Amino acid sequence: MPANDTIIEMEGIRKVYDTGKIQVEALRGIDLNISQGEFVAIVGPSGSGKSTLMNLIGCLDTPTAGVYRLSGQLVAGMKKDELATIRNRRVGFIFQNFNLLPQITAYENVEMPLLFGGVPRRERRNRIEELMERVGLKDRMEHKPTELSGGQMQRVAVARALAMDPDILLADEPTGNLDTSSGGDIMELFHELWEQGGTMLVITHDAALARRAARQVEIQDGLITRNTVGTGAGPAASE
Amino acid sequence: MARPRFLVLQLFLRSSRVQKKRAILTIAAIAWGTLALLLLLAFGEGLGLSLGKAWAGMGTDIAVIWPGETTVPWKGLPAGRAIRPRIDDIRALKERVPGLVGVSGEIIRWGTNFTHGDTTVNGPVKGVSTVWGQLRNQIPVAGGRFLNPLDDAQRRRVVFLGTDLATELFGEEDPIGESILIDKVPYTVIGVLIDKIMFGNYSGMDADHAIIPIRTLHAQYGSDRLSVLVLKPENRSGMKQALSEVAQVLSAKYGFDPEDDRVLGTWDTVETGKIRDNFLLGIKLFLSIIGVLTLTVGGIGVANIMYAVVKERTREIGVKMALGARSHWVTGPIVLEGLTYTLLGGLTGLVVATILVFVLSLIPTGDSMALDALGKPTLSPAIAATAAGVLGIIGLLAGYFPARRAASVEPAETLRYE
Predict the structure, then answer these.
(1) How far apart are CA B221 and CA B109, in angstroms?
(2) Which of A106, B77, B88, B369 is the most buried (most CB within 10 A)?
(3) Which of B14, B325, B326 sits opposite A108 (nearest CB)?
(4) Do the domain assignments include residue B268?
């Protein structure tokens, strides 16, 4: 895929939450394009619509109005199960609170998207071992999330997000629940992934993490207020 | 790409576990419901079996005919004539009415004296043609036999005793082969009726009667006129036809309107059997409804716990959806879990019910007619199948509705960080 291939294409995206009495307009017309291999940070105060935007990008929710193409595929009008397939194949989620399933092992957590994707058993094993090695937790595969530290949990979550080799990684405040050193490790990991050609979209309050992104998009009151290409993003920027 | 096999099962095994105490309580509720359903059905079945047996005591699918009087004039003959078929008419009926297992006549003499040694008992004696024994289920106790055609043809003085009559005359002694006097004429006892429960009867219980060949009775007392005719068609649907043909044959001989239903008073047990069967079916239905309702309460318990499970696992469900789970991969394990609790409970209930039914069958009924009639609770394959079916449906429903709620989980809502 050429480097400038568009992964995310949004035009006039609006999202209105209708709570019955009050209508809340979370997004009021977002135009956003993200290309293959970009590292984008979305910043903004709480309540600005960042998470709503991430939900839409990740196909967890559908926009009220506007056009959204993910890897060229028009998302509007898709059935629930089709959206599920898109989430499985094209998007990798990383959450602030990790959202690992506590009752199963790290291995089984990473296996979950592979199960949904219909990957055969042997391939699943190879893929999980490879991923766990990549995030540096190969010796922790049989541990349950409660037996892992916050940083380790988030790395398992990263492995899980990468499992189906998605078009884009979506991270919502990935360092929000981590101490500084673990947060730094995760940022390092993101950077490596980006350098290996991944497309990253990070929602964050963390200025240090935002600075690592090549591009920063600022949202306020449901609109993009700033869309800047950073200066030489990379580990150097935060060091 | 092919889905891994048993994906839903794998997901079920990997979902978080319900608190043990809660699961046990739910399973206990289902077990209790199953137990109630099974026991009620088992009592119904036992009641049906014992009633069926008791009604069969008089004979199954037979008709009993009492000759009466004409009520309408017929071919110049006046109304009010008594019609009394004779012994020879039995043969005529046998020859001219097709499709019968048998037709038999009986002549009853009341107030007969039966004497054995110093004991004299007063009761009815019946002269019957041989097939009567078959129609009326006159089963002899071991060592004896019922009358046979030779007894009748040779007018042998042999007697088949009812159980109670035999006991009154002989006490603990074995009557078979012994002599008794019937109105001072000696007879040999050839058989004793088995002890049977008998709900239907006409002219008294079989246990109190003495049965002798009809021609022997004729020879001793001179009576030739039949008190009662008994017949049985080869299949129950032929009963109406058979009765009408009997009326035709007798009408031709004795001159009465075959449509005059006062001439031949008829007890058609096929007809009354239908009423009895419906009544029994009503009782069984009533019992099963109570049982199913009790079980439904258990099912509501399962649904309840599954709703709680869905609520507790909202985040888990949201995560799975974010990772690309289709809705039936979310609902499937929940339905499976509801079914598992239901079936575990059902199995427990079945085991307890089986033990209870076994224990109940050990309790002797003694001489109580009521307990005899109530019968023993009986578990049949049909009951097990019914219970399994009801459990399956309840289990599915108890899982289905909570699962639907799970499928409606909005992942975007649940994944918002706390």
Answers:
(1) 9
(2) A106
(3) B14
(4) no
Distance, in Å, from the CA atom of B321 to the CA atom of A83, rounded to the nearest integer, reads 10
Task: Please count the structural domains in chain B.
Answer: 3
**Chain A hits for B321, Cβ within 8 Å:** 60, 84, 87
With contact defined as beta carbons under 8 Å apart, do A94 and B323 qualify? no
**Is the model's pTM score more than 0.90?**
no
CATH of the domain at A116: 3.40.50.300
Statement to judge: residues B186 and B126 lie in one domain: yes
- Confirm whether the ipTM is greater than 0.95: no
Domain that holds residue B380: 7-56+274-414
Residue B62 located in a structural domain: no
- Half-sphere exposure of residue A27: CA atoms within 13 angstroms, side-chain side: 28
Kindly state whether residues B115 and B203 are assigned to the same domain. Answer: yes
Q: Note down pLDDT in tens along chain B; length 418 residues.
A: 445 567 888 888 887 777 788 889 889 999 999 999 999 988 888 888 888 888 788 888 899 999 999 888 888 888 888 889 999 999 999 999 998 899 999 999 999 999 999 999 999 999 999 999 999 989 999 999 999 999 999 999 999 999 999 999 999 899 999 999 999 999 999 999 998 877 778 878 888 999 999 999 999 999 899 999 999 999 888 999 999 999 999 988 888 888 888 888 999 988 888 888 898 899 989 988 998 898 898 889 889 989 998 888 888 899 999 999 998 898 999 999 899 999 999 999 999 999 998 888 887 766 666 666 667 788 888 888 888 898 899 999 999 999 999 888 888 888 765 4
Distances (CA, A) of B51 to A58, B57, B137: 70, 10, 15
- Residue A47 near chain B (CB below 8 Å): no
Domain span at residue A133 reads 37-62+78-238
